[in-house]
Amino acid sequence: MTTPPIDLNAKPDVTGFFDEQSNTISYVVRDPDSTACAVIDPVMEFDPAAGRLTFDCADRMIAFIREQGLTLEWIIETHVHADHLSGAPYIQQELGGKIGIGEHVLTVQDTFGKIFNEGTEFQRDGSQFDKLFADNDTYQVDGLPCFALHTPGHTPACMVHVMGDAAFAGDTLFMPDGGSARADFPGGDAGQLYDSIQRVLSMPDEVRLFICHDYGPGGRAISWETTIGEQRANNIHVGGGKSREDFIKFRTERDAQLAVPKLILPSLQVNMRGGEVPKDDDGNMMLKTPVNKL
Q1: How many CB atoms lie within 10 A of CB 121?
Q2: How many domains does the chain have?
Q3: CA 102 to chain CA mean position, Å
């Protein structure tokens, strides 16, 4: 598959915000020639024992955007996350901007709408988002050229967003010593993930790659920026020309040993709704716990 041209001379300012609970890195991405910016994968914290929501990471991002005098144009979700809740609506309420996700969120909504036994009031048409991106869709953050690549495998709706010379990988790739994300969730596929990674790695070596999660393998400091060249050469799961067959075998065996993410049940219910928490008939925020469904 082809990709739109990459402007390596367009170098956005990228600031990462680390959420310790979920090991998520959210980003503010600024057009270098204006005050326009985008937010990537914002977090809303959730204490499952207390059933309590907080917004520490989102508040830090909001404060940064205000302190820098920036204007928020886009809030991008790289996919329907299963390990943290989205802070997108909270940030949008404070700063504006359009919330966007890949168009295959409809597949995720249909799959998990059934698992959570959602009624007809839960719309499965992506209408909870302001923009549904198709593969190779282009857009701009003021003058900064951007496009979205469909990269299924971890989930059906995964996308990598390229903004100038910076690409935001979501869960398609981790840092080179972290490898790749699991592919065993409903709708995931290890072969698709390999193909998506190869598409990402076909971009120029100089492209900066920003990842969504880091766990500090081997006790190293948390890190979130690498390059396509570094990934192609050194990624422990796909680097150095590892074959599709070997990757599928490794990924399938490894995924069978992984525990389910601690926040998967609240995350999926909230994130397939664009970050909105479902409510009961009395208007109270309420989450479900399906039994033996995952």
Answers
A1: 8
A2: 1
A3: 10
Q: In this predicted model, what pLDDT tens digit does every residue of 233-262 receive, in sequence order?
A: 999 999 998 999 999 999 999 999 999 999
For residues 30 and 70, the answer to whether their CB atoms sit within 8 Å is yes
The counts of H helices and E strands in the chain are 7, 15
Shortest CA distance to 15 belongs to which of 23, 25, 1, 5?
25
**Alpha helices for the chain (secondary structure H):** 56-67, 88-95, 105-115, 190-201, 228-234, 244-255, 264-271
Q: Per-residue confidence at 1, pLDDT binned at 50, 70, 90?
A: low
Range of the domain at 123: 13-271
CATH code of 29's domain: 3.60.15.10
Q: Per the domain annotation, does 4 fall within a domain?
A: no
Residue at 293 is within a domain: no
Residue 281: inside a domain: no
Distance CA 23, CA 17 (A): 10
Q: Are 103 and 132 in contact (CB under 8 A)?
A: yes
Q: pLDDT digits over 54-90, tens only?
A: 999 999 999 999 999 999 999 999 999 999 999 999 9
